[in-house]
Amino acid sequence: MTDKIFTKEEWLERLVGVKGDYRVFVPVKDGDFHMFAPIDNGKKPDFNYQNTRLSPKGLVYPQSERMFEYSLDKQDEDAFILKEAPKDYAPQAVVGIRPCDAQAFQIVKINFDNKEYQDPWWVQRFESSVLIGLGCNEPCDTCFCTSVGGGPFSEKGLDALLIDLGDAFLFRVISDKGQAFLDKMGGGAEAGQEQVEKARRLAQDAEGRMTSHVPTDKLKDRVVLDLFNAPFWEEVAFACINCGTCTYLCPTCWCFDIQDETYGKQGDRLRNWDSCMYPLFTLHGSGHNPRDKKFQRVRQRFMHKLKYYVDKYGDGVQCSGCGRCVRYCPVNIDIRKVCARMNAYEG
């Protein structure tokens, strides 16, 4: 394992220096919130942040993506033929991603890249991405990553981990991709034992500050129909306004819709993020909607994340504990409380 030390000034200089090899995305402040943006967007990188409002999943899985293009011009010899729209798979580095968001990519990967099915666009973007994490010295009070297989300094799904020592960053190589990124950056001094020990203490202290602990140990053993028919779903869903905020902010939600848009005689087939919170999400061509009631849609969201995924993949819940849905839900629906109720329910 390679540990390098960069002063904060040198770190920023070196990041700018690798733009010729990677598209570098960093956290920047945008109004009241943080987001990931290209390092040359005119805003100074801000690594002194808790987390972005939107997760960086959109850098691999765009919110709206042109899949195919077509012509409706009968004079065109390729009229009415779908052609794959041009896409960019250039190497990119997401620098400063929180461990919960890196773990989320591993949760989502099982849907887009498995033995039966591969989404070629997702796979190629993910494989061309380098994830440089940033340890959480001060986790949010809504975070619960330690309850779902992660941690504020977890290395799961990362290529390298950045640790803020106060006056400098410790850069820890985790994978070959992380080493290649470090080689391109150059510079840095070998970390001393005192600095490595300080990084260890920061990680230990951060875990000690985690105040949310969510029980998930009994979800696998619960009978799926018992949970489906549990009496608490109307109560859970009562305040929900089906705004979709929870699903759009979630780093592990993957649902999408496909639609065609035409302008004149040219058209595009688009893939757009979608949400199970929306009434049209399950509307059939016949007009029948199996989830036409609000509580059914709310139940679907929690059952999918906390039961269906658990049963199908046997790899924990479909949640990385980032806490975004808890922080930003306008009516204060809390996945931690719902999970605790499902975990304790015995039918």
C-alpha end-to-end distance: 49 Å
The average pLDDT score comes to 95
The largest sheet has its strands arranged as 3-2-6-7-8-9-1-10
Tell me, briefly, the overall form.
globular
- Find the structural class using helix and strand composition: alpha+beta
Helical percentage? 25-40%
Strand content: 15-25%
Number of structural domains: 2
Total count of strands: 12
What value does the Rg take, in angstroms? 22 Å
How many alpha or pi helices? 11
| Contiguous uncertain segments of 5+ residues | none
Largest sheet: 8 strands, mixed
Order of helices and strands: EHEEEEEHHEEEHEHHHHEEHHH
Q: Could you please describe the fold and organization of this structure?
A:
With 347 residues, the protein is α+β, with helices and mostly antiparallel strands. The chain has 11 helices and 12 strands. Strands 3-2-6-7-8-9-1-10 form an 8-stranded mixed sheet, sandwiched between helices. The protein has a 4-stranded antiparallel sheet with strand order 5-4-12-11, with no helix packed on it. Strand 11 (256-263) and strand 12 (266-273) form a beta hairpin.
Topology:
Blueprint: E1 3-7, H1 8-17, E2 23-30, E3 33-38, E4 64-71, E5 83-84, E6 92-97, H2 99-112, H3 120-127, E7 129-134, E8 160-164, E9 168-173, H4 176-185, E10 189-190, H5 193-209, H6 224-228, H7 233-237, H8 245-249, E11 256-263, E12 266-273, H9 294-313, H10 324-328, H11 335-344
Parallel strand pairs: 2-6, 6-7, 7-8
Antiparallel strand pairs: 1-9, 1-10, 2-3, 4-5, 4-12, 8-9, 11-12
